[in-house]
Amino acid sequence: MTHKLLIRLVDAEYAITRLNIGTPLPEWLAGAGFWAVSSSREEMTLVCRAARIPSNIQSSGGWRCFRIEQHFTFDVPGVLASVLNPLSDAGVGIFANSTFSTDYVFIIGSDLDKAVAALKAHGHEIMT
């Protein structure tokens, strides 16, 4: 199923950080904008606005964020794929994260123009 989506380009730079399992959540993590914590047996991953991360913390910065503005129930197939497939076809790497209500797709900032063009060519509307 192909979805034509309204996608917002979030006006902030994001960073992705890897911490060791068991590390307490840092005080700088929570704040304005999207932020998330994922934990597995191997690692803990943090995503937040790059400006909040102290300079002594190793992270991958320069990420831009697309937010799907529509809300779909969990049983609707293909929503995230309708964003990821055009990006993949355009050679844009992604880091995806979902919340209860929607999905967030992060791309390296240097791929922003290529990503926007690919999403528009697929029929999505991009809000800036």
From TrEMBL:
<dbReference type="InterPro" id="IPR049447">
    <property type="entry name" value="A9CJY8-like_N"/>
</dbReference>
<dbReference type="Pfam" id="PF13840">
    <property type="entry name" value="ACT_7"/>
</dbReference>
<dbReference type="Pfam" id="PF21631">
    <property type="entry name" value="A9CJY8-like_N"/>
</dbReference>
<dbReference type="InterPro" id="IPR045865">
    <property type="entry name" value="ACT-like_dom_sf"/>
</dbReference>
<feature type="domain" description="A9CJY8-like N-terminal">
    <location>
        <begin position="13"/>
        <end position="56"/>
    </location>
</feature>
<feature type="domain" description="CASTOR ACT">
    <location>
        <begin position="60"/>
        <end position="120"/>
    </location>
</feature>
<dbReference type="InterPro" id="IPR016540">
    <property type="entry name" value="UCP008459"/>
</dbReference>
<protein>
    <recommendedName>
        <fullName>Aspartate kinase</fullName>
    </recommendedName>
</protein>
<dbReference type="InterPro" id="IPR027795">
    <property type="entry name" value="CASTOR_ACT_dom"/>
</dbReference>
